[in-house]
Amino acid sequence: MAEHAPPSRVTYDYVTRTIARTLGSPTRGYFLLLGAAVALLLVGIVTLLYLLRYGLGLAGYSHPVYWAVFITCFVFWVGIAHSGTLISAILFLFRSGWRTAVYRTAEAMTVFAVMTAGLFPLIHIGRQWYFYWLIPYPNERGLWPNFKSPLIWDEFAIGTYFTVSTVFLIMGLIPDIAAVRDLATGWRKKLYALTSLGWTGANEQWRHYTRGYLYLAALATPLVLSVHSVVSWDFAMAIVPGWHATLFAPYFVAGAIYSGVAMVITLLVPIRKLFHLEEIITLHHFENLAKLCLLTGSIVSFSYMTENFVAWFSGNPHERAAFWYRAFGEYWWASWTMNICNGLLPWLLWSKTVRTNITALFVISIFVNIGMWFERYVIIVVSLAGEPYEPWANAVYNPTWADWGIMAGSFGWFFMWFLLFVKNFPAVSISEVKEVLPPPKRQAARAGAH
Amino acid sequence: MTTHLRLPLPKPIQDIIHPPPTPGVLGVFSYLDSTLDAIKKLRAAGHTEFTVYSPVPRHEIEDALGQSVSPVRAFTLIGGIAGCAIGAWLSLWMSYDWPVVVGGKPVGSIPPYVIIMFEMTILFGALSTILGIVFNAAFAARRSGTIQYDERFTNDRFGIFVPADSSQASGVESLLKQSGAEEVRRG
Predict the structure, then answer these.
(1) Is the alpha carbon torsion for B126, B129, B134, B135 positive or negative?
(2) pLDDT averaged over chain A?
């Protein structure tokens, strides 16, 4: 760690002021970004209104492909949501000091990505006003949800994940809101005084807070690993070739963390630049994120190889046909986008030059996310389209403007929340960044004076 | 004067919302080691009810104060066990309340329900942990409303507030100064 020691001018005071400065008056660039996000969201809203008026037939569904872009986007956004809790909970338990500078961004990203993901099952069911049927509530017919259905497991998993990651984010924010409260003036002071819940940093508060945070991290850790496993069982529990594999849970979890870490890089690069956080979020942090990407990307590549090997080795003609169709059927371009972006691209990260080049990382991270979106598209759409049990019913599914409109809207929705968050609450943890700095000591100050 | 137009609150509620200030001495420290020094001296002098402010949690401060482990862990444990039980009850009772028999298989089958039990364990464990933190820290917050605080404590200064009446105050003041407080205030 010594070689990554921060420069001596990065003191407690420097950290508080640098991060508090990110909350100042928004610039024109910020408003442009926010405007773009809201415009995208409006595209989504208008598309949704059309879907409500004319029905789901506007989307490209065609027999037997009834899980398509909406479910692809759902899995994509849930996947994005995974690195946040990985960085904030798992790396917290591992005592990784470097996580402190990046975890708040990742956690906020998690919460907003789950909020985005949650929209898709609702859009997908077509009649949003019946969504409450998913909830076990006493009704006049005495019906209850089927707890043997992976869709109900998913609802419990995503619901728990959203709740826990939100409270985790809010818990982490409290001492930092108190720190900006003590610097702020005007309406912001009132807002922060209210939301910091009377935090003063007294020893009795820290005593309960640090313990509670540890337990939250300990609970969130198995949760991260379970959520995407449960999402993968939405597919793996069915008998569709290309879905029905025991490999799915670890494969999905690794893929989720891979795409999530890539998204953290995509978001951190502009934030660091816009908010002048170069001293706090350093190359060292980016390099570590790139290493996480390399690790999880390698697991994903290995899973691709295993999947194809097992399809061949099983001797099952349907399984073999499904994977042949995947690589050389109508959707060859989707499969090869996925293979190149996820399977080959991360190999560049073996090079330290690439890992420490922020532009290169930014570009790679975007390609990884494109690749991961296509991975879900390939798994969901291509497996269904190539389904061998109804050979006469195979269809080439093509997404329509309604699919793309909803997808664009989801990006708008996500970035709108994210942009509003980073301008109103500390996007980098103040107290945790200070925690990894050497504390101010009288002895050190004296030695420095001589 | 318009303040007399306000309805006077009953005394106990008034005490909770606007508690009377606690008399005492506040020391502001720039350095962690001098803060630790002051904590040790205060404990040696028989003070127990003082509050230490710090911008970051430091194990050194915890050790110097000799604090016991926070009771939050009991909340987490009870919440987790309760969640697991609720998950089991929810899935099993609802299955038997409207039995859907498929292929003569058990109506309440444990393996898939483990997932529900697991998720509910985490959900209730996490929520009761939050409850535990808020519940326990509320007592600290309650007291913090009555004692002196300085806005620098969330930035880069450490602080110690020692409740002391006028007879003890000067002794505490000199003790804090001796340990290296850069500022000492009486309130």
Answers:
(1) positive
(2) 88
Instruction: For residue B164, give how far its alpha carbon lies from the nearest alpha carbon of chain A (Å).
Output: 18
Interface test with B, best of A85, A206, A214, A221 (most B CBs within 10 A): A206
Distance CA B30, CA B176 (A): 12
Q: Which domains does chain B have, with CATH numbers?
A: 23-68+147-186 (3.30.70), 72-137 (no CATH)
Q: Could you give the CA distance from residue B145 to residue B54 in angstroms, rounded to a whole number?
A: 17
Of A144, A432, A439, the CB nearest to B97: A144
Express each pLDDT in A121-164 by its tens digit.
999 998 889 888 888 888 888 888 888 889 999 999 999 999 99
A211 contacts B141? CB cut-off 8 A: no
Angle, alpha carbons A80-A83-A84 (nearest 5°): 100
Residue A312 has φ and ψ, to the nearest 5°, of: -75, -45
Q: What is the pLDDT of residues A411-426, one digit of tens each?
A: 999 999 999 999 889 8
Residue that is written with structure tokens 């994509």 in the block: A76
d(Cα A441, Cα A447) in Å, to the nearest integer?
Answer: 10
Q: Among A167, A182, A206, whose Cβ lies nearest the Cβ of B54?
A: A206
B68, closest residue in chain A (CA to CA): A207
Confidence tier at B143 by pLDDT (50, 70, 90) = low
Rg value, chain B, Cα: 26
Instruction: Give the chain B residue nearest A209 (alpha carbons).
Output: B133
The packing angle between helices A103-125 and A401-424, to 10°, is 150
Whether the CB-CB separation of A241 and A254 falls below 8 Å is answered with no
- CA-CA distance, A374 to A371, in Å (whole number)? 5
- Residue A198's closest chain B neighbor by CA? B141
Instruction: Please report residues of B whose CB lies closer than 8 A to that of A200.
Output: 53, 141, 144, 149, 153-154
Question: What DSSP line would sit under B3-25, residue for residue?
Answer: GGGSPPPPHHHHHHHSPPPPPEE
Chain A residues with CB-CB distance to B154 below 8 A = 16, 175, 178-179, 181-182, 199-201
Contact between A147 and B112 under an 8 Å Cβ cutoff? The reply is yes
